[in-house]
Amino acid sequence: MQDVRETVGQRITAEMKRNKMSMRALARVIQVAQPTVYKWCHDQSEPLLRHIRALAAVFNVSPLWLMYGDDVPSVTETVTSGNVSVGNGGIIYRSNDDILYYPVPSDEMEPTVRLGDVAIVDRSVSRIGPSGIYLVVLGGEDVMRRFSRTIDGSLKVSRDNAERYPDIETICGQDVRNLTVVGKVVSKVSVSKLS
Q1: Which residues, at least 6 apart from 76, have a Cβ–Cβ distance to it below 8 Å?
Q2: Whole-model pTM over 0.85
Q3: Which residue among 7, 68, 98, 173 is least enclosed by CB atoms within 10 Å?
């Protein structure tokens, strides 16, 4: 496998070379525009999770390696929320400083992320960027929320379970800069009980 410190774009480029695949061919296979692949390869943008999965399938590598330069990490440390300031009192498993495994404590983000799932949080993301689900500290609590930017630069904050939690908040100006971002949710692991 490639070095962990490489970027997503460098890993995509290396896999294209290894598979003798052009940007045009890759774009056609995963059904995106060729300029999109160019931007990924040159780290001008990052692939969405669905594209990461498609790229991983084409290259026959793990999606986690493609995103982070590492195979599925093993759990090397167990910490409580007091040590990491995340988790509403639950136990959090982490394998390194950039990936956090967060047991989802509520149904607020259903159906996207369900109660009992384990969210995989990219802790290298320290501010709200493109729209997505982030783990943040709001009102002194660690919560998962969907954030989307409006034209004026403010943030629209919502929960995916709009039927049960219909409220939508807006964060503006200084409040946006003061928002504590733990990381961006990049994937999840659904846990089901075996009978």
Answers
A1: 94, 95, 96
A2: no
A3: 173
